[in-house]
Fold this protein.
Amino acid sequence: WDLSEDFTVAASNVITTLAFGKEYEKSSAELQRLHGCLNEIVSLWGSPWISALDSFPLLRKLPNPPFSRLLKEVARRDDIIRTHLDEYKMQAPSKTSEEAIAITSALLNGLGKPQDTTQGVVLTDTHVHMATVDLLIGGTETTAAWLSWTVAFLLH
């Protein structure tokens, strides 16, 4: 019985709750779509064909099916995240709602405001988008892997 799938879905759900203040059912189509996309990106990222591109960037000019699939999945991921962020912006959560304490709320409140007065750095939509992506991919995979290893260690 493989618990890694359950751990990944559970971790993904926790991260979406932190990011968007929105919890999904395990069988939710939206959560499954996000989970499937993230899994595909992580599995493609480990491909030797993708790793070779780091050492030899000129290989990007040659046909590379795993790289093409990775680009499609990244575009799909970006569409999913953009949809979530757009929905979140439209809802304009009240200060008492669960969504108002989400990380995305804090990030969106900082949009357009200078973050570093010495260099005039301004938080943009791209920053918010990529911070959300980092939360989802980094938080989901590391947490799920940690849970799997913990169970394996305890069983051993």
